[in-house]
């Protein structure tokens, strides 16, 4: 599982995909999420604005990602 460091309370799912360089554009992130290609904590998530916080497990393309706060 890869960890993405954030400096905010949460990161939106589509922003996580862009920030982690998993997609090229926001439009691609939107499309991938709405097509059901992403799971959050084991369930398909089609809400691109889903708030991802430390401890959440995001799976995309067969790889798992989580987030952690930069100051902790």
Task: Please provide a written account of the structure.
The chain has 72 residues and is of the alpha+beta class. The protein has helices at 13-19, 26-34, and strands at residues 2-6, 11-12, 38-40, 43-44, 51-52, 58-60, 63-69. The strands form 2 sheets. A 5-stranded mixed sheet has the order 1-7-6-3-4, with helices on one face. Strands 2-5 form a two-stranded antiparallel sheet. The protein is globular, with a radius of gyration of 11 Å.
Relevant terms:
single chain, alpha+beta, 2 helices, 22% helix, globular
Compose a concise summary of this entry.
The chain has helices at residues 13-19, 26-34; strands at 2-6, 11-12, 38-40, 43-44, 51-52, 58-60, 63-69. By secondary structure, the protein is of the alpha+beta class. β6 (58-60) and β7 (63-69) form a beta hairpin.
Report, as a whole number of angstroms, the end-to-end distance: 18 Å
How would you spell out the order of helices and strands? Answer: EEHHEEEEE
Strand arrangement within the widest β-sheet reads 1-7-6-3-4
Uncertain segments: none
Give the C-alpha Rg: 11 Å
How many individual helices?
A: 2
Strand residue content: 25-35%
Helix content: 10-25%
| Average residue pLDDT | 95
Shape: globular
Described by strand count, sense and barrel closure, the largest sheet is: 5 strands, mixed
- Structural class of the secondary structure composition? alpha+beta
Number of strands: 7
